[in-house]
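Slide 14.
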Amino acid sequence: MPAIRRILSLLLLLCAAALSARAATWTTIDVPGAPDTAVNGINNAGDMVGIYGDPNGYHGFLLSGGMFTTFDMPGAKQTNPVAINSSGQISGWYVSTDGNQHGFFFNGQSFTSIDFPGATDTLANGINDSGEIVGAYTDTIARHGFKWINGSFTTIDVGIKENTFIYGINNRGQVVGINENRHGEFRDFVLSADGQVRTFNFSYVPFAINDKRIVVGGWPPSGNLGFRFNLKTKRFTKMLFPGTNFTVCTGINDAGQIVGGYQDAQSNSHGFLWTK
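Slide 15: predicted structure.
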């Protein structure tokens, strides 16, 4: 009997190891007929938002239940949805006919423009389930981060206050971004709701953070790898879509599903969904 128990225990351990080591699944996502697609955000229901290109420019899309819905900010030259929360509310930015950038909030029925008072441009990025939107704006001096909710703005400057870019926010109120100096050197950070700042030494851009405190992002424009980083375990994992040489991770939900974009050998852009 002891020998049988040992054998059963060994089998259970082997099964557990096999489950924990199961391969990740990479799924390409392309808007039908579009030469270029990128997925920017995903919510806990698995709904995704992103941008695609066609001969008339760049447009936003929602992928929900296997169905694509495309949309544009009225009158915009370009519409770029960045994130979606559990209620289906979408944040992002658009380019107006004069070439300026503006943030937007889309509730599925109507759009609200988001422009920081006095700013030359405003980019709205992440959104959480409370409807808090984070992003960045530029004034005559520098780039600053901001938080927006129900029309009210709060400026967020981190560190040396030369340039702060905010990209994502979770339901804990934690935001991720970068602080850049005048020489173009930057550091990543996570800012907690209570104002505590945690910085990192790796030169990646963090685009999103989920409620389990996993951060995803990618290299600066000159690089080619995406990443995911667990704040609790400090485990850092590089991400590269199989068979390609460029990948960026832009969104993650609480199930750990990651979305982003990659380029194929012909330099065409595609969206992806990563699951494990």
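Speaker note: The chain has one helix and 24 strands.
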